[in-house]
From TrEMBL:
Gene3D superfamilies: Aspartate Aminotransferase, domain 1, Type I PLP-dependent aspartate aminotransferase-like (Major domain). The keyword Lyase applies. This is Cystathionine gamma-lyase. Its EC number is 4.4.1.1.
């Protein structure tokens, strides 16, 4: 099997044909020429399928499950479209689902909607034995996020897959933070790997994207049918841009992971910074499990500053890191997460996404901004 850089650059790219573009451009079509029986047509109507999605889906399936011919991916216009496609196509009234209590901030909204349709939802924090304890005979679907956003807690995918399967439940992993190069949930036993490709997979901060990957063609078909029937489809331009971004995924995850580790170490050395989390740090509480199941530890570092004002002064004083949400892009971003109100985090909690800038420059910028944030009287922090 080829290395991951080779795989990323070739993923979903067709065999070269004389005088054809190396990667076909986006196909803009609401409908396709359709003689005869639609059941045998590869493309008929734009809500059902498009060659640009097919290429992107082949790329994602190749990354999530290399060399597995039966694996398939289904792309969506956002991570939440992919998430809700799984939850609402696979759960029925009366089913029991287990969701993380500390996962992506919109999961509680999805929970309310599921409960409105008669699904019973339990929650458990990431990585705790509570997650295993919540899986009993009645459970149909277990959803985990590892590492979790924004707390960066880690759970053992293989153990949870075994526990879920022993009780007839499906295990779904949100693989957004790790990317398929960082972690391959399907190989660890998960039934579905779901992600927001908006983040590191696309990596350029210019496209929203979601996907669901599965080894079992029946599961992929159920999710694809949901997409066709609800109409939650991605545009061909977005699909093509995302596919273009995947070519550099290996370069980006390697560089961003190495810089994130250097940044986490620098932050740990500062007295005003507490609770530094990065699964790649040997001292991190999640490191042991992360090291067993991840190849790259991602680009997100989280930490806590003394209070809200301190964090705001720090963010305002950064020169290379913009105050913005989302993560995984080539340009570094950071935000005070409590401003959204959805996560259970301290007021001074910062989620930092490390980009591809030079590590020394980023570390110097973080030090300077921390100095400025601590030095309230100088007024430096307001001089943005
Ligand atoms: C961003 C995110 C989502 C939602 O993805 P969108 O593309 O914003 O809809 C889901 N899960 C995790 C872990 C995320 O970070």
């Amino acid at each position: 099997m080829v290395g991951e850089g080779t795989r990323a650059v070739g993923a979903g790219v067709p065999e070269g044909e004389a005088y054809a573009a190396p990667v076909p451009g986006p196909t803009f079509a609401a409908h396709f020429h359709l003689p005869g029986d639609p059941a045998v047509a590869p493309y008929a109507y734009g809500r059902q399928g498009n060659p640009t999605w097919t290429a992107l889906e082949a790329a994602v399936a190749e990354l999530e499950a290399p060399g597995e011919a039966d694996a398939a991916a289904v792309v969506f216009p956002s991570g939440m479209a992919a998430t809700t496609a799984v939850l609402f196509s696979l759960l029925r009234p009366g089913d029991v689902a287990v969701l993380p209590s500390d996962g992506y901030q919109l999961l509680p909204r999805a929970r309310e909607r599921l409960e409105g349709f008669g699904v019973v939802v339990r929650t458990a924090p990431t990585g705790a034995d509570a997650q295993l304890a919540a899986i009993d005979e009645g459970v149909r679907l277990v959803w985990v996020e590892t590492p979790s956003n924004p707390g960066l807690d880690v759970c053992d995918i293989r153990r949870l897959a075994e526990a879920a399967h022993a009780r007839g439940a499906l295990l779904v992993v949100d693989n957004t933070l790790a990317t398929p190069l960082g972690q391959r949930p399907l190989a660890l036993g998960a039934d579905l790997s779901v992600a927001s490709g908006t983040k590191a997979l696309n990596g350029h901060g210019d496209v929203l994207l979601g996907y669901v990957a599965a080894r079992d063609p029946a599961l992929a078909a159920a999710v694809r049918a949901w997409r066709t029937e609800t109409g939650a489809i991605i545009g061909p331009m977005e699909a093509w841009l995302a596919h273009r971004g995947i070519a550099t995924l290996q370069l980006r995850v390697e560089r961003q992971g190495a810089t994130a580790l250097a940044v986490a170490r620098a932050l740990r050395a500062r007295p005003e910074v507490s609770g530094v989390r990065y699964p790649g740090l040997p001292e991190d509480p999640g490191h042991e499990v992360a090291a067993r199941q991840m190849r790259h530890f991602g680009c997100v570092v989280s930490f806590t500053l003394p209070d809200r004002g301190y964090a705001e002064r720090f963010l305002a004083a950064l020169r290379l890191v913009s105050d913005a949400t989302s993560f995984g892009g080539v340009r570094s971003t950071a935000e005070r997460r409590a401003r959204w109100g959805g996560d259970e985090v301290p007021e001074g909690f910062v989620r930092l996404s490390v980009g591809i800038e030079d590590a020394e420059d980023l570390v110097a910028d973080l030090h300077a901004a921390l100095d400025a944030a601590g030095d309230v009287s100088s007024g430096a922090a307001r001089a943005t």
